[in-house]
Design goal:
single chain; mainly alpha; Substrate Binding Domain Of Dnak, Chain:A, Domain 2; AH/BAR_dom_sf; Rho GTPase activating protein 44; GTPase activation
Length: 232
Amino acid sequence: MKKQFNRMRQLANQTVGRAEKTEVLSEDLLQVEKRLDLVKQVSHSTHKKLNACLQGQQGTDMEKRSKKLPLTILAQCMEEGAAVLGEDSLLGKMLKLCGETEEKLAQELIQFEYQIERDVVEPLYVLAEVDIPNIQKQRKHLAKLVLDMDSARTRYQQSSKSSSHPSTLQPGAKSESLREEMEETANRMEICRDQLSADMYNFMAKEIDYANYFQTRRGWRSRRLASPWRNT
């Protein structure tokens, strides 16, 4: 009968331990977490599509970009044709003029794409593939620390209840050790939670900066469309 009573008490203690589960994130931070996932998804997709729109070879200097640009190849073809036909002929003069114009357009496009890559494409990559994943990694680490803390607390509570039994010998040392372990894990968890909260709220505060990436692209696009060479 006594063994059954002790068994029931142990089961009750375990049930209580499971019920005392610490929430990883507050309601506000759960909303921020959902926002993180959405921004990462949109940024990744936009970065991929924007990369596909660039005609020049990415990650190279201006000269190498220009050589493989279709406009540059067309300009060279026209200038070579003008040389074959003779620059004194009407068709030769027209080809030479068009070739020079296409070359200027090519240089303008290269400059435009270089600015887009520097001010939009690269920041979007950092946002989607570095900044947000770092926050998500930190969130997983916090979840692990929460589990560690809950486990340490459960062990301490069970030890405290067991130490109150008259048959327990020298319960103080073990209980004190478990209490220190619980406090240490709780301290690590709170430090991680504070840092994660700061990073997540900082992310939300910087959303206007992320919007400016696209504003930058729009500004460069408007200037390119307004260029006099567009009407040449």
